[in-house]
Amino acid sequence: MDLNADLGEGFGTWRLGDDEALLEVVTSANVACGFHAGDPVTMRRVCAGAVERGVAIGAQVGYRDLAGFGRRRIDVAPDELAADVLYQIGALDACARPGGGRVQYVKPHGALYNTAADDPGQAGAVADAVAAFDRSLPLLGLPDSALADAAAERGLPFVAEAFADRAYLPTGRLVPRDQPGAVLTEPAAVSARAVAFAVDGLVIAVEGSRVAITAASVCVHGDTPGAVALARAVRDGLVAAGITVEPFAP
Predict the structure, then answer these.
(1) Residues 188-197: pLDDT tens digits?
(2) pTM of the full predicted structure?
(3) Residue 122: half-sphere exposure toward Cβ, Cα within 13 Å
């Protein structure tokens, strides 16, 4: 099982999350590319740290929305969105290569992630951008989603992920962040959820139903309170359950 987290989400002198500590725990780093968060200095620093630790580098692409941290849906024309995503992938790849790294996968962020899960137009725009950059790059996203379909249509690898620190609806989608209980912050509960994904392929939804989730990567958000402790609890729980924790991306 891969363990991923969002990194590089500061901007200028403002810092969010503990990138250095998370790089010691995760196997894949979703690095902000400057649209929802991040800047060139931060991008280079996080990528260099990932290379040093053998952590896979992923381009976390989002809407052009620094003020809203990329968590507001924006109705962007598909060709414009594809260009924005392509720009972000290229920017992060340029920041990774001087340190001996490269972009190894792509994951949408925030509102774009949730929109691309159900909107074929925006999902297709994201997939078009990845295909234009490098058809060997995997897309990371929700299973049974429009993004998974768009990747398959374009011959792109797709890797399904699950969220250890988010509540689920019975549909297999995430509980919106503005609803109570949407974000989980208790390490034991988050770890147990990750183990359930890896061992049993399921999650207990908010109303108590069992939802099948097949995933090769589990995510802990870098801006969740206590993210480092949560990530460590997830990794320790997976290892204790006999699960090998390693990157999915080559």
Answers:
(1) 999 999 999 9
(2) 0.95
(3) 19
